[in-house]
Every structure is written in structure tokens, then in C-alpha cells.
Amino acid sequence: YKGVWHLNGSDYTDATTTGNDGVQNNTGSITGRIAGGRSFNGTNSYVRLNPLAGFVRCNESQTISIWARYSSTPSGNRNFVAFQNTGASSAVQVGFADGLPEAWAWGGGTLAPYGTLPSANTWHYYVYTFDGTRHRLYVDGVYQENTTAGQAGIPGEGNLGRYNYGEFFDGWLD
Description:
By secondary structure, the protein is mostly beta strands. 0% of the residues lie in helices and 44% in strands. It has a seven-stranded antiparallel beta sheet with strand order 1-4-13-6-7-8-9, with no helix packed on it. A seven-stranded antiparallel beta sheet has the order 2-3-14-5-10-11-12, with no helix packed on it. It is globular, with a radius of gyration of 14 Å. The protein starts with 21 loop residues before the first strand and ends with a strand. The relative contact order is 0.26.
């Protein structure tokens, strides 16, 4: 593991030995899917993970997972989690793109689309995987896949609930 954040209470400490601790802005404490979680308001709340250490390039094998809940379908691009390298114009983002779940790259290139809209007002488990060839996005254990090439930058910053100063998520994360 390169980073694990439990989001319990006011603790944004990385539970791994890599030390990728987070700092929150305007999130609220909630009862999450697994212990505590955080609420995000869709306009200015996030948890920033910066700088990141020990992460692999965006085009190397990896897994990103997160629980999410929302009261209505997010419109536009709304990030649950994003790991990016702004200098290399490289990222992996997981959330909603144009109203549907998706994993995508810097600039909007689709890594793994998910063509079915999960129901609102319930927790869903999102898992993005890349094995070096196939990008997969699982929602509650069911996946869609794609073989698009990933971007090569090593993420230097991560965010929960937004992407690099925008695309804020309105809902709960755990």
C-alpha cells in the first residue's frame, strides 16, 4: 500500500509507512461505511494529500478504492479521488464524468468508463485497477474495462473530493 486514509474524526494520517498525510478543508465528520467518513459540499471541501511519496507512475499497475455516497447524480466531472502530477500533465481520477462513474486521465481521456448509473442515497464501492494493459472500474463488484494507454507521470499530489482546485464532489466518502 502507498496510502490508506481512514477519515475517522479529524485524523487524515496515512496509515501506511509512506507518510502521505492529508489536510482537510471544510469537510464534515459523518458515520461512514466503515467507521468514520467525511462529507464534502461540492464547492470547496476536500482532503489534500501533498506531497505524495512512494507512488507509481500513472501508467503502472495500481489499485485505487473508495466508498462513496451521494443524494443525487453528480453532474459534470466530480472527483472522489485524484492523484496527479501537474508538471507532467498526468493524472488518474476516479469519480463521475458527465454524470456517469468513470476513471479518467489528465485532460479527460477515459481510462475505464462505467455505463450504468448507481442508485443515489446508498453507499457504493468504487475500485479502479490497472494491470499494465487493462484499466478496470468496478462498482459494487461489477466492472467495465478499457485498454487506453495511461499517462507516465508519477503523482506528486492527491486529493479526496476534488481535482487540483476544481471538480468538487458533493456527497460522502469513506
